[in-house]
Design goal:
219 residues; elongated
Length: 219
């Protein structure tokens, strides 16, 4: 577990620092050589990078059975999957959250649990709001097991612009609901698979906040 990332005290995720440094250097360079247009463009781009990599502190007080949103964004779809052809290997609910470039992109653990497995898969970069993105895009699958032996799977999925999925946790670690665990750069989505007896409270098109918005309750 990367404690420095998970317990980040800066308002910006550390992964954004290299981009900010480059942006500041270019802005100063253009300013000193007197190119006003490029100075302004570089400054705006640097501010956007700081905005994109923002990492606000968030607290919650939820029960063991509460499932919170793993990402900021909008609920794209809620599917009830009746067969076993899904990451849970049993009937399940699939909740998809779509993140635009304007959302906070630091992701958070959805439920108190132990990490059983993490599997990274390279892939393509279709727009994250398309159904085929779930299967074909670069992704990182994290499998959790709760104290009551409920299995929960969620998948970080890269988007059209994203080219880097970051994960700060490892298999075998105990994690809490709302804890930071990673991020995806520049537009993406997260699919979360929950047991089919989960009480889903999320609604399609609902705007959610990672680690705070309750999307369901395990049985």
């Amino acid at each position: 577990m990367d404690e420095s990332r998970i317990k980040n005290k800066w308002p910006i995720a550390k992964e954004g620092f290299p981009f900010l440094i480059i942006g500041c250097v270019l802005t100063l360079l253009f300013y000193f050589v007197g190119i006003l247009f490029l100075t302004t463009l570089s400054a705006i781009t640097t501010l956007f990078i700081a905005f994109f990599f923002r990492d606000p502190e968030r607290n919650n007080h939820v029960s063991e059975k509460t499932v919170v949103a793993p990402a900021d964004g909008r609920i794209l779809k809620i599917h009830h999957l009746e067969d076993k052809k899904n990451p849970l290997g049993q009937p399940a609910f699939k909740v998809s959250i779509f993140m635009t470039v304007f959302n906070v992109h630091v992701n958070r653990i959805p439920v108190e649990s132990v990490i059983k497995d993490i599997t990274y898969n390279p892939g393509k970069f279709f727009s994250a709001n398309l159904d085929k993105a779930s299967e074909l895009n670069e992704n990182n699958r994290i499998t959790l097991e709760t104290r009551d032996a409920h299995k929960v799977v969620f998948i970080q999925i890269a988007g059209l612009i994203a080219r880097r999925i970051v994960c700060w946790v490892k298999a075998g670690e105990r994690v809490t609901a709302g804890q930071r665990f990673g991020l995806i750069r520049f537009g993406s989505r997260i699919d979360i698979y929950l047991p089919d007896d989960t009480q889903i409270t999320a609604q399609i098109n609902q705007k959610v906040r990672a680690g705070q918005t309750v999307i369901g309750y395990l049985s």
